[in-house]
């Protein structure tokens, strides 16, 4: 099997010169580069990627820890990471966890074993004290805020966005407001959402909060539950535009008019929300993913906040 020494001998150059050509090093004359490349082509030589990675001291591979796909929030963050990776010529490895703590640690151990240059965590199951030691082996970037100095982060102020969303509905005249989440109280986002609700509306009615919602079908089922209550909500804040779309369709099926009889507020500005005219809280998660990528390849520990915005459409009007 041809190796780098064979290439050097046949081309009449040093092994280090061949190494520089393979790694696109600029300090090689065009004449020598052409000679070495000609021999590489003639001998049909394919370099060992692991060996080159060791020489360079990097893999140009970034891991993205993601609980699961087919979720608008995580898919948008991953989309942002992929956008930047193509620009910068990095490879991305998607690391799904389903919030399994042991699986998450296995992925973080890939930094220690030099299989990755860095890891972006879109959402975590382990506490930061468990994660921080792995920053000794590579860059770890979070897509949620953390004040730990070892961890850089690209994040949105979720609590502020939830406050603004509920206040927006209140300003439109709504006091009977329901909402949905993906996860239960184990999720920081869920706890922040409930705290924001209580700050704006006071005590939470238990039946006005439903979890385990992530798909259009979940929204349809939740709409059925909420709109069959004796005292039904006049507005619903869905944790995604797909979920909101399911609610919208169910409301229409029982002749509840949106926005006259029911206001629906979605999240993440998805195409279905645009098509159905659903007002949405856009956390700009593609930008979060893009910024997280920049942080991880630059080994930065900065804390970068991405702004959110409420995009108004026809699914909400002033309650009369």
From TrEMBL:
Give the matching InterPro entries.
HTH_LacI (IPR000843), Lambda_DNA-bd_dom_sf (IPR010982), Peripla_BP/Lac1_sug-bd_dom (IPR001761), Peripla_BP_I (IPR028082)
Enumerate the UniProt keywords alphabetically: DNA-binding, Transcription, Transcription regulation
Q: Which Pfam families match?
A: LacI, Peripla_BP_1
Transcription is among the record's keywords: yes
| Organism field | Neobacillus rhizosphaerae
Name of this chain's protein: Catabolite control protein B
Where does the record place a coiled coil? Answer: none
Looking up SUPFAM superfamilies in the UniProt record yields: lambda repressor-like DNA-binding domains, Periplasmic binding protein-like I
**Which residue range or ranges hold the HTH lacI-type domain?**
2-56
């Amino acid at each position: 099997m041809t190796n780098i020494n064979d290439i050097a001998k046949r081309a009449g150059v040093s092994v280090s010169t061949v190494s520089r050509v393979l790694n696109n090093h600029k300090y090689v004359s065009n004449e020598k580069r052409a000679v070495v490349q000609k021999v590489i082509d003639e001998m049909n030589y394919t370099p060992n990627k692991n060996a080159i990675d060791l020489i360079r001291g990097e893999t140009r591979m970034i891991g993205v820890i993601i609980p699961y796909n087919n979720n608008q929030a995580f898919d948008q963050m991953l989309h942002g990471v992929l956008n930047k990776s193509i620009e910068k010529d990095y490879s991305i490895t998607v690391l799904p966890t389903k919030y399994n703590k042991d699986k998450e640690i296995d992925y973080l151990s890939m930094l220690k074993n030099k299989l990755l240059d860095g890891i972006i965590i879109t959402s975590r199951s382990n506490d930061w004290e468990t994660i921080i030691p792995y920053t000794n082996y590579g860059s770890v970037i979070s897509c949620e805020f953390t004040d730990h100095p070892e961890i850089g982060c690209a994040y949105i102020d979720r609590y502020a966005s939830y406050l603004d969303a509920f206040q927006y509905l209140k300003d439109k005249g709504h006091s009977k407001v329901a909402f949905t989440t993906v996860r239960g109280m184990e999720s920081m986002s869920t706890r922040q959402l409930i705290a924001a609700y209580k700050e704006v509306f006071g005590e939470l009615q238990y039946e006005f909060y439903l979890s385990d919602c992530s798909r259009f079908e979940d929204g349809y089922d939740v709409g059925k539950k909420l709109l069959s209550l004796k005292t039904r909500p006049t507005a619903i804040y869905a944790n995604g535009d797909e979920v909101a779309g399911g609610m919208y369709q169910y409301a229409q099926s029982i002749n509840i008019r949106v926005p006259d009889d029911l206001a629906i507020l979605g999240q993440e500005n998805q195409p279905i929300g645009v098509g159905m005219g659903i007002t949405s809280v856009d956390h700009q998660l593609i930008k979060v993913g893009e910024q997280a990528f920049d942080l991880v390849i630059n080994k930065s520990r900065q804390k970068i906040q991405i702004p959110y915005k409420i995009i108004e459409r026809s699914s909400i009007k002033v309650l009369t």
